[in-house]
Sequence to fold (676 residues):
Amino acid sequence: MKVNMNIDVHHIARVEGHGNIHITVRDGELIEAEWQVVETPRFFEAILRGRPHDMAPTLTSRICGICSIGHTLASLRAVERAMQVRVPKNAQLLRLLAKHGETIQSHILHLFFLAAPDLLGVGSVIPLTKSHPEVVAVALRLKGLANDMCDLIAGRTTHPVSLVVGGLSKAPEKKQLEMLKLTIQERFSDVMATVDIFKTLSMPDFVRETEFVSLKGKGKYPWIGGDLISTDGVLKAEDDYLAMTNEYKEDFTTSKFTRLSRESFAVGALARFNNNHKLLHKKAKETAQALCLKPVNNNPYMNNIAQLVECYHVMLESIEIIDKLLDSNLGNICNRYNITDGEGVGAVEVPRGILYHHYIIDKKGTIAKANCVIPTTQNNANIHHDLAELVTQQINLGKNDKEVTKLCEMLVRAYDPCISCSVH
Amino acid sequence: MKYLGIDPQKVKIGVFDFTGCEGCELQLANKEESLLEFLSLLEVVNFREISSDSSQDYDIALVEGSISRKDEIERLTDIRARAKVLVAMGACACFGGVNYLKNQYPLKDVVKEVYGMHSVETSKVKRIADVVKVDLNIPGCPVSKSEVESIIVSIVVGAEVKIPKYPVCVECKQNVNTCVVDLGKICLGPITRAGCGAVCPTGKAGCLGCRGPAEDANYGSLREILREKGHCESEIEQKLCFYNAFNGSTEK
Ligand code: SF4
Ligand code: SF4
Ligand code: SF4
Fold:
């Protein structure tokens, strides 16, 4: 059958930011499949120039309302590596705890508010409050936990206030950490309930062999800093990130594209899992198995499942972190430092994948040059190539416009793109 | 009872984003305890970030972000024409926000710095009120969810909308914080309008003024105190311009 198809999704819903899907099929042949990012750029790299180094984390957190803690941490790491600032061990643990809060917050928001409506056949989470109140209640409790974690450690969930160069400006009280530990323990049953829900929802069946890029864990599942690795066997140092990202610009989109060993690569929960699954907590590994997630998984829709596995993992790891903090002295959580000139790269695994900040700082401590490479920027080219393959497979299966449009939208959502972030 | 011309029975609300980080919108999905109750008061008819159901029929438009491209002006004008009440939500919408820093550089230069030889369409950053009439400003970066909730509820039930006029210092002292100015930091709390619960100084970080000026803000005396503490002019300036929240009112 020779089908014709014109799919135009303008400002796709339930994703962060503005993007369009544009697909043309004529006589059964795919003519075009484009993923167009049409977000207005904000030029963060340009406006960082001339700012004091200690304002860079505050400014760059505004790149993204969802992963503002991740941006702050990447920015801090770039500044701290440029000026050789040492961060006390406990401050590093606290920062990781705030980051885990953000990971849960972001993954839960995506799983329940953005992805689940497709799987349950509704337009948004709002009708689910009536049809599936128990599911929404689980989601809200887990999101609430994530907010509590971020508020306690970072002062605020969106745009943190107490993560500063040298460490943290304020430490939580041990009593508060004990309370947090109890709440996390109480919420494990909600994670299990979520796993049960997702066991009953089947992900679309689609495979395209992909290169996956992430940080390389060293004894632990990786979150902040370290070497860069890909499933095609590339290994690079953190400072060498440009050789990993190779950004270029296409005319139909305001976000840049990236490539490595192939025409595109993927970052995010699935990429972290594919590269570092061995380092997951034992219980999280078992959960991955129960959800049929095995490395190396080449189905982009399974990113949803990898996010769920990571939620469980970071909650388990948060308990370990809190135990360590409770056993230690929280007196010094911020080191003094001398302002020097220098250059530094900070790579951090944020919910949607690996994020890089790179600054050159002059001897007065002012940012002279900046570069930020965003996870969604790295995924945009992969989404683009996935779409072409997905549409080709689906027309061969005889699917109609409506079915193909839904699968395309779900594919874009599975990457959990953060578009305004990618067009910072 | 009607307020701003809206019948409280069926308040339809739309949420729209322009140039910004979508952090303000995200606050609407936060505060889990009261989310469902809040939603039960309203009919959310347009909120692209969380819903694919959309309608062009709404009473209140919550607008996030600033304006930095031609197509945004058209979209905003259209929203203004449909909405009975248009609310600018967040520092980007009210003041330009951090995006406004772009206006300190020539446009050509910022495009070249980020995109090299490629041309990318962008214009000088504008506030929402520079383009259309704004009925209400809810400041903050991000906005505080409880404030947005109570303001929307006020609009719906016809109560007077209250945003504090006194400075952040008042809330900071209620929280019995140590003043961060005494710890050697710059804090804009004395000139900034309260309502955030002094969240930054409570986290031992200086206020950057994301909620805009308090009533009768005394810029001169704040500058003098900060200079006495050894902060130089350019350092103070960097903080004052961060959100463009004190635009034109920061006489030395
Ligand atoms: S005001 Fe702040 S939180 Fe709101 S959109 Fe702008 S940058 Fe984001
Ligand atoms: S820390 Fe800031 S807000 Fe608090 S009292 Fe001092 S100046 Fe005022
Ligand atoms: S303390 Fe100042 S900068 Fe912080 S949220 Fe309040 S008004 Fe905004």
Remarks:
- Chain B touches chain A through 59 residues (CB under 8 Å).
- The pocket of iron/sulfur cluster (ligand 2) is lined by residues B 168-169, 172-173, 177, 179-181, 187, 189-190, 198, 201, 207 (CB under 6 Å).
- The first helix of chain B runs from residue 23 to 28.
- The beta strands of chain B are 12-17, 43-47, 60-64, 85-89, 136-138.
